[in-house]
Predict the structure.
Amino acid sequence: MTPPERVLRYAAFTETPEGGNPAGVVLDPRGMDPEEMLAVAREVGYSETAFLSSRTTADAGVREYDIRYFSPEAEVPFCGHATIAAAVALAERDGPGDLTFHIGAGPVPLRTSRDAADGIVATLTSVVPHIEDVTAADLAAALSALDWDPSELDSGLPSKIAYAGARHLIVAAGSRARLAELEYDFEALKALMLRLDLTTVSLVWCECDDRYHVRNPFPVGGVVEDPATGAAAAAFGAYLRELGLVTGPATIDILQGQDMGRPSRLTIDIAADRLEIAVTGHAVAIRT
């Protein structure tokens, strides 16, 4: 078992430890098998803990790492907030610069830098995303588990499954009030998500063309709700482009966590000349 002092704790997509989404980071998991990683993630208790192993064959000038993500319940294929947290942890240890994290779906380039306030900001670039339809029956099952009526949806933002390293069901509320009232059937939504291989459900509300409010139930990870979800933000950027709601280059602000008391801000950049989506945010250490 990794000693507790080897687990770093960061809040991602925030500039204060009280906001954002907490993530565990283990920079040296040598000797740990997946069962031990899962046990550490369960002990840490955050929605995800990231485990990084340095690649000895990294190209000069770019630091490369294999990274795995574990929730308290299971390994997940990709986690944006833990990626941002891990990148900031490395920048604080080794200095800012370019990084590459390798996940099962491919390489995830990152850039870290110091901003004007002397904090560390990180940008990840997703793998190539894609969008697929959700069947009427599966959407009906999701709405039933959420206790949402079809009349409460935003007809201008049709429900889709979006992927940018992990799969997310996007469902758009017709009002901020509908988004604010989140009480759902945990087990029913979890069963549907496992069947559809979903990591989260992205519940969104459009404040204006370049600002969205989001909530992300995460029962498959043993977590009721995520206060900031970078992987889902990347997938949502691809969704907006696929529907023709934005044309790159475009920058979208995602506000998440307000209804949980952990406000988060995620910035997604949709380029005109590449399919991948960039997600940017701060991360700060949580002192224990």
In short: The helical segments are 34-44, 80-94, 136-146, 176-180, 186-196, 230-242. The chain has a mean pLDDT of 95. The chain has two domains: 4-124, 130-281. The longest strand covers residues 106-114.
